[in-house]
Amino acid sequence: MAHGLFSLEGRTALVTGGSRGIGKMIAAGFIEHGAKVYISSRKADQCDEAAEALSAGGECVSLPQDISTVEGCKALTERLAALEPKLDILVNNAGAAWGADFDEFPESGWDKVLNLNLKSPFFLTQALHGALKAAASQERPAKVIMVASIDGIRLNPQETYSYHASKSGLIYLTRRMAMRLVRDWIVVTAIAPGPFASQMNRDARDHGDEVAKRVPMRRIGRDEDMAGAAIYLASRAGDYVVGETIAVDGGVALAT
User: Fold this and answer.
1) Rounded (to 5) percent helix, strand, coil in the chain
2) What is the percent of the chain where pLDDT is above 70?
């Protein structure tokens, strides 16, 4: 168990999109450092399965929920409230991507991505504001961590219009929310991942060696790279980092 600066002992966390990929990496890191973690995702069987696997390292509870609507965000909040009086850490990680040629790009690909990537983090945090405030103090602020993307910092050559717009928007939303919520001792920050093997980044997952050649660090991200950044922001170590977005990308955004 971790002690001191990076300890999450006695803290409760909720990670959306926590059944796989980056969300699961973060959940595993939090559990290892002593947090009780609730994971949420749309597919109940996957969520339950992931929670069971993660429970090998500590306490992990499955709360499946589709949070692509405001109603869904409220429903997840109510389910959590029935189990926990307060929430120390919220990780807004659930996301979607869509690629299509400019002339063919559909409204459905716009709405799905903007709703889940940009609207849901706002309304889920709004719904959980009371629970976060209940956990927060100046000495031990509550934390909200947004999972953005380096596609919000630099252009990806692929035609992912709504994804780019949602992730750059999320980075700015992080700043705006940080300035409001800091008065309640809730610290809002963001992580912008680069190439990590996941369902969302199939290139990194299926062609890791090829992708690694374009990364200044000459490798794709590992689970502990993502967990480490999230643990830093969630723990005492990151208490004085407000509204910032940390790129965890092996140097890709700078090199682009």
Assistant:
1) 50, 15, 35
2) 95
